[in-house]
Amino acid sequence: MKKARISFIILILLSVVAFAALPGASAETEPAVYRLIPYMEQSDAVFDVQTALLRLGYLGKGSDFTLGIFDDATLKALRLFCEDNHIALPAEGISPEIQKYLLEKSPSPRAASEEGALTRLFFMRGGYMAPLSYEVTLTGDGYVIAENEGRPRPLDPSLAAEMIRVVEECGMKRWDGFRGSNPYVLDGESFSLTMEFADGTTVYASGENSFPDGYGEASARLDEIFEKAAMSRLAGVYRYEGEGFGGDFTLTLNADGSYTFYEGPLSSYMGGGTWRVYLNAVDLNEENGFELSFTFGVEEGALIYLSGSSDPFPYVKVKDRERFVRTESEEESMKLFIDGTPVPVTWENNESVTALRGLLPLEVSMSMYGGFEQVGPLGRGLPRDDRQTVTAPGDIVLYSGNQIVVFYGSNSWAYTPLGHINLSPGEMAGLLSGGDVVLTVTE
């Protein structure tokens, strides 16, 4: 019993000495270097953390100083350090005192990211379906992404940041040199990874039915990121190359994962639901009444209807591999703002839009009308080609040749189409249903 009391007193004294050495405990002395232990016992994870801190200059070689007892707090700064060095953080966490010390001493995250920035990531997966590859490259204007060696397009900064987190959190640098193969699996998956960093570090890994630690989580998270990038790229209005039901058959894919289709002016049904991208295919699931699903292949600027994996459309008979072509426009540089908020637009390629461009910069005071649209005067007439149309949320049309209308609901009338805002019906209602707005169109 006496020996236990002595041990307890020693423990208290050590804790007091440790606290006295913390930053802020003395204004005159620099805090001592630390050796970290969780509640009276070492573990491999703790030694790994020590190694990371030693490499980062937070520990002195041979130091024996013991600091505190671990609690359940998560140390953000130490976590970042450990991720950078592919070191596992102890599950117990770090005491707030150490947290304060490391936060004070940590280098700026921006500087650290610039020094070891990911400059290129190439990731390819293959299996029973055609291989799909993504190449992400850092340019002077940010990251760009190319799918299957296609044309590079800007990658949204939030998706680029998430990609970098996946690389760090899944320890993908540790995959360097991995060459795996499992000859006993007859059908499965293969992968290839190349990463390059600003400091000259390169990572190469590949496998066939054999994968490095963390591969499952990393590949799933990267798939989600790349799918969002693909959905952003594919969002737009597509027009069926064949005959619609009394007019144009259009399919609109929104970047938020919703879609609408309208088979033509004689159709009484407006389709809608959710869509997603998987490998080189776009899958649509109908949610507006009919239990339908559709699958399209993806080509540059077009969707290819795959009848073997799709239900028929309600009114128009679309044949296998017939195309829905994206409505590209020479006026894609035109930008649209609603009360100062930029919105993504696919403009029509017609004389009306060309004439509209001649009015830029344009500001139109809009007024709510009918509970489904906002309308405003252009101040002059534009060329018109009115046709009976059932509009959808996001549609932009010319009315009577001299008024611009933006819909957050639906209406049937004779309009000249100008374009479509690639947002969901809910987002359109949020922008337009609360009161009159100002519409701005610029180069």
Describe the structure.
With 443 residues, the chain is of the alpha+beta class. The protein is built from nine helices and 26 strands. The chain has helices spanning 2-20, 44-55, 76-84, 96-105, 109-115, 157-169, 215-234, 351-357, 425-432, and strands spanning 118-126, 132-139, 142-147, 153-154, 179-181, 190-197, 202-208, 236-240, 250-253, 258-262, 270-278, 281-286, 293-299, 302-305, 323-326, 335-338, 341-343, 345-347, 362-365, 367-369, 373-377, 387-390, 395-399, 403-407, 412-421, 438-442. A hairpin with a 2-residue loop joins strand 11 and strand 12. Helix 6 (157-169) runs antiparallel to helix 7.
Which helices and strands appear, and what pairs or packs with what?
Elements: H1 2-20, H2 44-55, H3 76-84, H4 96-105, H5 109-115, E1 118-126, E2 132-139, E3 142-147, E4 153-154, H6 157-169, E5 179-181, E6 190-197, E7 202-208, H7 215-234, E8 236-240, E9 250-253, E10 258-262, E11 270-278, E12 281-286, E13 293-299, E14 302-305, E15 323-326, E16 335-338, E17 341-343, E18 345-347, H8 351-357, E19 362-365, E20 367-369, E21 373-377, E22 387-390, E23 395-399, E24 403-407, E25 412-421, H9 425-432, E26 438-442
